[in-house]
Amino acid sequence: MATTTQSAHETGEPSGNWRAGVVGGSVGALVMGALVLAMNPPTLAVAIPSLYTLAPPPNPGLGMVVHVSHGAVLGVVFAALVGALDVERPTRLVGAGIAWGVATWIGLAALLMPLWLSAVGSPASPPFPNFAPPSLLWHGAYGAVLGAVYVATEDAL
User: Fold this and answer.
1) Is pLDDT of 6 > 70?
2) Which pLDDT score, from 0 to 100, does residue 4 have?
3) Is residue 9 part of a domain?
4) Given this model, what pLDDT does residue 7 score?
5) Angstrom distance (rounded) from CA 74 to CA 15
C-alpha cells in the first residue's frame, strides 16, 4: 500500500508590485512637492533637506530630490502592505493609498519629523507634535496619487 503526502509551501514570492509602488510613490511625491511649493516653500526648501543636514541654505531642488526619494521608498512599503492584505480592487487601492498618506502624515510628518529636525538642530524645526492641516492635505494627495498610479501601472510593470 502506497501513501502520498502533499504539503503546501509558500513560494516566498513577495506579493504586491514594488515597481508600481516606486512609480506611484515617486509621482505622488512630485505632486505633493508641487503643493508644498505652492503653499509653504520653506518646508521643501529647508525642512526636508535639513533632515540630512543639507540645508540651510534653502534649496528647493535638493528638497524635492529627498522628498521624491522618501516617496519612492514609502511607495514600496505601500505595495508590500496592499499585497500582504490582498487589496486588489482599484477603488480600494486608491482608498488604501489615501489611508497610507494619512498614516505617513501622523507617524512621519507629525511625530517623527519634528523630533528629527530638532535632533539635527534645523532652523525649520516645528513644535512637537506637528499636526498641521496643510500637511494632512499634502499627504492625502500623495496617497491618492500613489494609489491611482499603482492601479494604472501594477499590471504593466
Assistant:
1) no
2) 53
3) no
4) 44
5) 16
Indicate whether 13 belongs to any domain.
Answer: no
Nearest to 88 by CA among 19, 147, 25: 147
Domain housing 39: 18-153
Domain count, the chain: 1
Q: Is residue 62 one of the residues assigned to a domain?
A: yes
HSE of 151, CA atoms in CB hemisphere, 13 A: 16
Helix (H), strand (E) at residue 142: helix 133-153
Of 115, 113, 102, nearest to 43 (Cα)? Answer: 113
**CA separation for the pair 128, 136 (Å, rounded):** 15
Distance CA 114, CA 95 (A): 27
pLDDT band for position 11 (cuts 50, 70, 90): low
Report yes or no on 12 lying in a domain: no
Contact 27, 149 (CB under 8 A): yes
Which grid cell sits at 41?
A: 516653500
- Crossing angle, helix 18-39 and helix 60-84, to 10 degrees? 140
CB 124 within 8 A of CB 42: yes
